[in-house]
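MODEL INPUT / OUTPUT PAIR
PAIR INDEX: 1
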Amino acid sequence: MLISVFEECSKSIVKYSIVKTVYQRSIETTPLSVIVPLLSPSFQSVTDQVHSFSHQTPISIRNCVYRIKCNDCTKVYIGQTARELHTRIGEHKRSINRPPRNIDEYQAIVNDSAMAGHALDTGHRIDLENVDILRRGLKFTPQRLVTEAMEIAKHPSVNRIEGVELASVWRAVLDQPR
């Protein structure tokens, strides 16, 4: 009995120390207002804590590469922005929700937004409520563009432009199974 109580305490301490480590590392890259919801007094598993945090889209995040999924197929849209993410998502929403009145408007929408073009051409629904942040803290445009190109290469995407051209060495690395 005493051993099992000790084991339970050890597990709780290990979980706490892992959560504390994740918290400390996230402070370095994320504003505190985003981190606070991650930690709760209960001892959830670290996986549950990180999973629930990663699926929240903080409205004030900047300098990131993000992924938007199609609800009806496996394709995704990979994008990058230096502005606040909610501003960019709002632009995506407007382009998708704006029905074209004629063929010229249709062409303009499709030319402006690959994601809106996918939704219009296929009738699929785009999940703009659950945007995944793939990388954050990329303050320089070249960093974001290269990261975006690498993510586009890894996913079946609706992106028309693959971003910056990656060297063949990167293609070989990205194509390896994990």
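PAIR INDEX: 2
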Amino acid sequence: MKRHVGNTTVITAIGNHDTSPTEMAAPASLPDGRANQFSWNWDYVSKLWHSEGWINSTTAKDVRTHYGGYSINPRKGLRVISFNTDFWYTGNAFAFINTTDPDVSGVLRFVTDELQAAEDANERAWIVGHVVPGWDGYSSMDNPTNLFYQIVTRYSHTIAAMFFGHTHEDEFAVYYHNTNGNSSSVSRKTEDAVAISFISPSITPLTNMNPGIRVLEVDSETYELHDYHQYYTPLQDVKDKKETKTGLVCVKADELSEELESSELEVRELSDELESSEEDERERDELELESELLESSDEDERREELELESELLESSDEVGEVLEDLERELLLLDSSDEVGELELDERERLELESELLESSDEDERERDELLESSDEDERREELELESELLESSDEVGELLEDLERELLLLDSSDEVGELELDERERLELESELLESSDEDERERDELLESSDEDERREELELESELLDCS
């Protein structure tokens, strides 16, 4: 490293393979001198890093105190905090001593103090470690993870970036707001995201990996990551190739920005599909609603038609009853011995009434045809006219019933002489009255056709109310 990077600042972080015995780190809180049983690890790396010029003597002392962890300011406004993550690593047997204490080693206390110092100095901070924190059940213990998430939440405005390894893969992790949560209670909402960490692939090919290195693009003022360029060695292609002066040949993979653009494109396409699906659902809902409204409207129209048909059938039944009464009257007149001119006049009158009723039937059929082909306004007018005609027909029926009773009285009378003459004159008068009634009906029809604006306005108001009801 020193030969290739020269005087470039190198920041290191202790990993689970960097100690002897591997993965072991004992907390300083252990009694009877057992806290220092692995201290040679921290003594060795502190001397090594100091001899390479990567840290000064003061920082070397911190390395021995904090199990290989330390903090430096490589540039103005930037504080880099490196710490030993083996104390939350499940592979470290000493991490299971007093698991109720989330920071038995004091490592997270050290990280918190350095973040507070960065905040006080108005600095941005980078956090560097090896074993990735989290509740994935792979490497980290719950209580230290929970405490670290709380620390990140508290100092998220100070933390510019976090870098981890351990998985040997190219990954990243999103941190969500956490005050005292766990894997099931921490929010997963986008608006609650507070930080992100970048997980770099390994140089070692363990296990079935391509060795990789990463070059970062960083803002020189905010120290936030803008992009990175990933390089790797495709081991399947170097089987028969020789090693160069600087090692195996690396090729450039996709850049982060390109991957994000591709991801954004996929997200936009997915979003478009979801929006299209939502529009289709809205259209289906609208069509279903229109269908329901049309069905309801059809039901209302059908109900009105059935009611009208019922009324017309009732009217037809009444006309049929009148015709039956007329036939009975004709039979009675035919069987009478003393009918004289009365019989002739009465028969003619009854035949005329029968023709009128038959004509009324034809008129009803014509009205039915008009009702089927007319629009709603004409239909309402015809219904009103039919109502008045039916009322008039009821009056004619009542008059016929009176005539029937009178005829029965005449048939049973022995003295018809002058009474018969008088009765004939009265019947002629009634016939004239009926004709006058017919003329009145025609006049009413003409009045209905030539009604003034007030009547038309009332009809329109009635139509409006009926339409509102519909």
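PAIR 2 NOTE: The longest helix spans residues 256-334.
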